[in-house]
Specification:
Elements (H helix, E strand, L loop, with lengths): L29 E4 L20 E7 L11 H16 L3 E6 L2 H13 L7 E5 L7 H4 L2 E5 L2 E8 L2 H4 L9 H7 L8 E7 L6 E2 L4 E5 H4 L10 H12 L3 E5 L17 E5 L2 E5 L9 H13 L9 E5 L21 E3 L2 E6 L5 H11 L4 E6 L14 E5 L5
Parallel strand pairs: 2-3, 3-4, 6-7, 9-10, 12-13, 15-16
Antiparallel strand pairs: 1-7, 2-17, 5-6, 8-9, 11-12, 14-15
Length: 386
């Protein structure tokens, strides 16, 4: 099912020891192991790319106790649409605020023609909906899977996060993940901040990962070493430019540039020289052009179009981005924004994914809370959701 990640010169220890023992795997980064079943000796875990076979996708449903309260009528149909498309291909795990909320969601899903045989509903209190950042990250080695529960601090303390930071552990305690073990990691890391190609390359941004509000006591060198060990990396490509107005994440990579395969990166491009984003995104484009694939060749770069500016009621610009797509088994769910550029974006993504259906999902309601499609989802590799 999964192969072992290509090895770098770095030593990558086995997960076969109890966490906390001297010289134990992941060093002092891992705080607690939820399951200490022996792993294959000398097995190097790695973060699979999003296009690897999946068992399901996680959603944390919006509720009246959070920031979506005044927009539920507009945003819940987006969640239903995503759940319907996912359920046609794999399982969908949905976190519900309470039992009343769960019953409400179940009715929405039934009314929306979602395949209920592939739906898993669980009551797990939440602050917000951004599963990409509070959900567990799954690493793999051959047939072994491991859920990593990184810390989440509300994107550097911008929003409340206590309930969201407990979601992964609550799901694990509810046996959602079957026999897959989970380890909590003493490192702040959001899933939207990292992008991998499955061969040991990670693409990310300095603005986010090196933000002093995330891991203030860790140097870039130390952070790189920890990420290489935890995610099975050989190298990290850092973007020092690129940011969207209205984005609260400090430039998550999944709003800017995405691997479509090991040789191809789709990225946000601004062609309007009068737009405030133009200079930063042009510089980011140059950085991408300077990167090479693991084999030393330039990447095939696919520019995604620039939608027209949209603003909320307070005049804040909203972060509409076509890079925030989700890859699932047999399909790509692509965000659209009721914009003339939607057609161009869908066409370019179809060029990037010729063997998958590219399905438009109207995500205009999502950007009113400053995120989009990829931000509200977290995929699990095959074998995690039974």
């Amino acid at each position: 099912m999964f192969s072992e990640a290509p090895r770098s010169d770095d030593v990558y220890e086995s997960h076969s020891k109890l966490v906390g023992a001297p010289g134990q795997t992941l060093g002092s980064v891992v705080a607690h192991a939820y399951d200490c079943a022996p792993m294959r000796p000398a097995c190097r875990y790695y973060l699979p790319p999003e296009w690897a076979p999946q068992s399901g996708v996680m959603l944390t449903w919006p509720h009246r106790f959070g920031d979506w309260a005044s927009r539920l009528a507009a945003v819940e149909p987006v969640f239903v649409h995503i759940a319907r498309e996912v359920s046609q291909r794999e399982k969908i795990l949905i976190c519900c605020y309470d039992s009343k909320h769960r019953a409400h969601i179940e009715q929405l899903l039934r009314d929306g023609s979602v395949d209920m045989q592939r739906v898993i509903l669980r009551v797990v209190p939440s602050n917000d909906t951004w599963a990409r950042d509070h959900g567990p990250i799954t690493v793999a080695c051959q047939d072994e899977l491991l859920l990593l529960d990184f810390g989440f601090n509300g994107w550097g303390g911008k929003y409340g996060y206590a309930a969201d930071n407990e979601i992964s552990r609550r799901l694990y305690a509810d046996d959602i993940f079957g026999d897959t073990p989970m380890e909590t990691v003493q490192l702040i890391l959001e899933g939207g901040s990292v992008e991998v190609d499955g061969t040991g390359t990670l693409l990310t941004t300095t603005r986010c990962l090196l933000a002093p509000t995330r891991n203030p006591d860790i140097t870039q060198e130390k952070l790189e070493a920890q990420l290489k060990e935890l995610l099975g990396l050989n190298r990290i490509l850092w973007l020092r430019h690129g940011h969207l107005e209205g984005d609260d994440t400090d430039a998550h990579i999944d709003t800017l540039a995405r691997f479509c395969d090991v040789n191809t990166i789709a990225y946000v491009a601004c062609d309007d020289s009068q737009d405030a984003h133009y200079a930063e995104l042009k510089t980011m484009e140059g950085e991408l052009q300077s990167f090479t694939t693991p084999s030393g060749q330039p990447y095939k770069l696919v520019p995604l179009p620039w939608p027209r500016a949209r603003y909320d009621e307070d005049g804040r610009r909203l972060p509409a981005t076509y890079a925030n797509f989700l890859i699932i088994d047999g399909a790509v769910l692509a965000p659209t924004y009721q914009d003339p550029a939607d057609t161009i974006a869908l066409a370019r993504l179809r060029e990037c994914f010729p063997d998958r259906a590219v399905i438009a999902v109207d995500c205009l309601p999502l950007i009113y809370q400053y995120g989009s499609l990829h931000c509200i989802t977290m995929q699990f590799p095959r074998g995690v959701l039974a």
